[in-house]
What does this fold into?
Amino acid sequence: MHTFKYNLAAVFKYISLVLGALMALMPIVVVFFASLKTNAEYASTGPLTLPENWLNFANYTKAFVDGNMLLGFMNTIIIVLISIAGATLTGSMMAYILARFKFRGSKALMGAFLLATLIPGVTTQVATFQIINALDLFNTRWAPILMYLGTDIIAVYIFMQFLDSISESLDESAMLDGASYWTIYWRIILPLLSPAIVTVIIVKGVNIYNDFYTPFLYMPKSSLQVVSTALFKFKGPYGSQWEVICAAIMIAIIPTLIAFVALQKYIYNGFAQGSVK
Amino acid sequence: MPKLSNMSYKNQRILIIFLFSLVPVVLLLTFSYLPVFKMFQYSFTSWNGLSKNMEYIGFDNYKTIFTKPEYFAVFKVSLYYFFATFIQMGLALYFATILSFNVRLKNWFKGILFFPTLLNGVAIGFIFLFFFKPEGTLNTILDLLGLGALQQKWLLNPQLINISLAFASVWRYMGMNFIIFLGAISSIGSDIYEASEIDGANRWHQFRHIIIPSIKRILQLNLILAVSGAIGVFEIPYVMTGGSNGSGTFVIQTVDVAFKYSKLGLASAMAVVLLGIVVLVTILQRILIKEEK
It folds into this structure.
């Protein structure tokens, strides 16, 4: 009797897991199927029907060219690279002085950053827009870059947590050798922070790659489109060509999939650290 | 440029504290505090965002928000997302719990359940447009299961539209909650489970008396964040429906009022109301979590 009950629980467990996995994958998989179908095939078959030719990439070419996805990727890469490099530098610098020096106002500084995270970005967008305008940054890549750089307490937090585990005697012995604080930061602290830097890069990178709101609002110029806004443009004009839209969706997703498979371990750590405030 | 290493450590400290905090502080003031200040200022004006002088109109904008039903009705939409969060967290907690113990293909299931959270918001919007289309995935599956009678026009029926959109939102964010819970549960020492097994505890007892208490704070935090999350919904409904058919959320409306109808004053007042709710929720959360200690 006991084993019977135990088995039933195990069966239920696996059924629920398989259902959960199906639910997570199904919506994406059907989009993948549709992206490989020809227009006529798409019109005559249901979404669950497998594509006839698994190597029909015509829709991908069309989506890539018509949607000017290359431009989207280029702009995204530029914005991601500059934002991440900047956020890593400023975040680690902030964390370094907050963790290593006790100075008047350090608590207030920390508090100011914390308080700022409580303000949801979407609420202040209307006023932020005016500031970007006044700085003459509207419709430039600097608008999103500055905003991604601006409010990053999560990076500071991750770095500070990590700095706690780096012994201060390292700093002290370097000081005995006459190293300046800059040398200590640049030569000792920053290299030792590299696991935390990977985490920050992933968390920020995913957020920036996926962000729609900021580029949509601040860079409507089509030469500045990023992956999100390029994809959004398929709405409307391609209403009757879902197989092309589906290919565009896949084009936007594939980089994420590759990054996820390659960096799985770091991603799990990164999200666990980044989200527990 | 004088060499840093020639300076005394005391002076170096002052210099480095100043230099290292300069950029972050300037950015913080420009993009966090100045907008809040400006937002309050605009909220008392009838400014259209372009004209040189702003006209102060007192609390008129706030009166409009709280008296005109078309402005207040959007909060009803938030309720759908708010309730959906409970389903989302229930599922996340369930999957996190079973995947904390021995399961075959554990890492595969973990990866699959988490993956949707990493996807582009616009892509998710499109994926679910495809999913809910009249001849789309959901209706086809229902047909296949012999439940053809349940087929619906999911995004055209005002009764169902917000439920459908909230479902897409659950699909998107469940993995995030899942991974946080998983992290919290994995920090529980295995000796506690072993000790409880000696005392004859089964899985349910362990869940109820070990897991739940140890992740209580994260659970509470997530529950309260659900409120601000529900009010801040933007991407999925904007991409999928543009806010039509009664699916407009507070943020969609704010963006429309500000950038489509150029009523910056009114939009700012709406944002102040939104910020007010979030601050209130945050204070509530602090109080609740403090009581726990």
